[in-house]
Write a structure and sequence with these properties.
By secondary structure, this protein is of the alpha+beta class. The protein is built from 8 helices and 21 strands. This is DUF2125 domain-containing protein.
C-alpha cells in the first residue's frame, strides 16, 4: 500500500498541459535577449526551439512593434513523447510574442495564444483527439543569464478533447497555472470525462493544488476538490489535504518540479511525468529519513465523513517505499456496514474485498457517533487497523 493507494489519483482529470507545449518546449534552448527584440533575433530563438524538439511549422506573418516581435504560425506539429505509438499535437494560427522584460534586462518575456481548434494525430484511431480551446494563452519569463525559466503562467477559459470514433471526451473550464519561484498553483473548474458514446465516467466541480515553501524552507502541499462524481459506491465528493515534506527543502523540490514542467510543455505523457516527479521527491525524502506529515485530511462522501492526521516515513527497504500511520475519525460506519457487511456476514460487495470489511469492523466507537481507526502501513507491506492485520504484504 502506497500513498497513491491511500489517496487515489484522479488521473482522468489531468489537464493536458501539452496543449501549451510547442512554445514552452524550448525552455532549455533560448539564447540571451538583446536590448530590443527585432524579427530576426526572435525568429532565431523560435527556430532553435523548433529544431531541438523536432517541431515543424510554417511562418505566416512576422512583425515588430515597440520592441516586441510577433509571429503567426500555421501547420505546427509537435511530437508527443512517452506514449505508445506516434502522436503529434497539430495546430494552426498560433500567435507568439517575444520581447525583453521591461524591469529586468536579463529576462525575456514570451507570450503565446493558441487557436480555438487543434488535434492530436496518432497511428491508432482510438488515440486521436479533436481539441477545442477557448482563450488559451500564457507567458514564460526566461532568464537569459542563467538560461532557466523564472516563471510560467497559463490560462484557458475552456479545454476539451473528443475522440472522433468512440466519441469519448474530457473537458474542463477556467484552467489556471502559475509556476513561480516561491509557489506553484494549479486549478480548474467543471471537469468531466466520459467513456465511449459519451457515457459519463466522472466529473468534478473544482480542484486546486498548491506547492510552496514552509517558513523553514521545507516543502508544503495543499490539495482540495469539490463536487466529484464517479460511478461507484464510494464517491469522495469533497477532499481536503494538507501535507508537509519535513525533510525535503523547497530548493530541492523546485528543480524537480521544473523538470516536470519542461517535460509537460515538451509534450511528454502527463502520467509518466507525474511518476518521475514522485520518484524524485521520494529519493529526496529518503536522504534525510524525515517523515511526510499528513497535517489535515478530510473526505466527505455519501452520508460519510472522515478526518485524520498521520505521517509516512520513507524507507528504502519498505515494501511500498514508506512506513507510516494514519489516525482517522469516521462518521457513518453504519452506512458502510450496510454496503459491505461484517466479517461474519459480508454482503456480495464485501466478499469481493475482505480487507475493507475487516478494517471497518476494527473501528473503536468514540463520542457522538465517531469511530476511530489507527491505520498502519508496516515495512513488510502489511496494513493493520487498530492492531488487526487486514491486508498482507506483497508476495504473502
Amino acid at each position: 500500500m502506497s500513498l497513491a493507494a491511500l489517496f487515489p489519483r484522479f488521473g482522468a482529470t489531468k489537464t493536458r498541459l501539452g496543449l501549451f507545449a510547442w512554445l514552452g518546449a524550448g525552455l532549455v534552448a533560448l539564447p540571451g535577449a538583446a536590448s530590443a527584440m527585432d524579427v530576426a533575433q526572435a525568429r532565431a530563438i523560435v527556430q532553435k526551439i523548433m529544431a531541438q524538439h523536432d517541431i515543424t511549422a510554417t511562418e505566416k506573418t512576422a512583425t515588430t512593434h515597440d520592441g516586441t516581435a510577433s509571429f503567426r504560425f500555421d501547420d505546427v506539429h509537435l511530437p508527443l513523447g512517452g506514449y505508445e505509438g506516434n502522436r503529434d499535437l497539430v495546430m494552426s494560427n498560433v500567435q507568439i510574442d517575444v520581447k525583453e522584460d521591461g524591469k529586468n534586462p536579463q529576462l525575456a518575456t514570451i507570450g503565446f495564444a493558441l487557436p480555438e481548434q487543434g488535434r492530436i494525430e496518432a497511428d491508432e484511431t482510438i488515440n486521436q483527439r479533436n481539441l477545442t480551446l477557448h482563450d488559451a494563452r500564457g507567458t514564460i519569463n526566461w532568464n537569459t543569464k542563467t538560461s532557466s525559466p523564472e516563471g510560467f503562467t497559463g490560462l484557458a477559459d475552456f479545454l476539451g478533447a473528443d475522440e472522433p470514433v468512440s466519441r469519448q471526451h474530457w473537458l474542463l473550464s477556467d484552467l489556471q497555472i502559475s509556476w513561480l519561484k516561491q509557489k506553484i498553483d494549479l486549478a480548474w473548474r467543471d471537469a468531466e470525462w466520459t467513456g465511449p458514446n459519451r457515457e459519463k465516467m466522472g466529473a468534478m466541480k473544482a480542484a486546486d493544488l498548491s506547492l510552496y515553501p514552509d517558513s523553514d524552507g521545507t516543502t508544503r502541499m495543499d490539495y482540495s476538490h469539490d463536487g466529484m462524481w464517479m460511478p461507484g459506491l464510494f464517491q469522495p465528493r469533497t477532499v481536503r489535504l494538507k501535507g508537509h515534506a519535513t525533510g525535503v527543502q523547497w530548493s530541492r523540490t523546485r528543480p524537480i518540479l521544473q523538470r516536470g514542467l519542461t517535460d509537460l510543455l515538451a509534450g511528454e505523457n502527463p502520467a509518466q511525468v507525474r511518476n518521475n516527479i514522485g520518484n524524485d521527491l521520494w529519493h529526496e525524502a529518503l536522504k534525510t529519513g524525515k517523515p511526510i506529515d499528513i497535517e489535515d485530511l478530510y473526505v466527505e462522501s455519501r452520508n460519510l465523513e472522515a478526518a485524520g492526521t498521520g505521517e509516512f516515513v520513507p524507507q528504502e527497504k519498505a515494501a511500498y517505499g514508506f512506513q507510516g500511520l494514519l489516525d482517522l475519525d469516521l462518521v457513518g460506519r453504519d452506512q458502510l456496514e450496510y454496503l459491505l457487511g461484517t466479517p461474519k456476514n459480508p454482503t456480495i460487495l464485501g466478499a469481493l474485498f475482505p480487507p475493507a470489511v475487516d478494517g471497518l469492523a476494527a473501528g473503536k466507537p468514540g463520542k457522538q457517533g465517531i469511530n476511530k481507526y489507527k491505520v498502519q502501513l508496516l515495512a513488510d507491506g502489511r496494513i493493520t487497523v487498530n492492531g488487526r492485520t487486514v491486508m498482507s504484504g506483497p508476495g504473502s
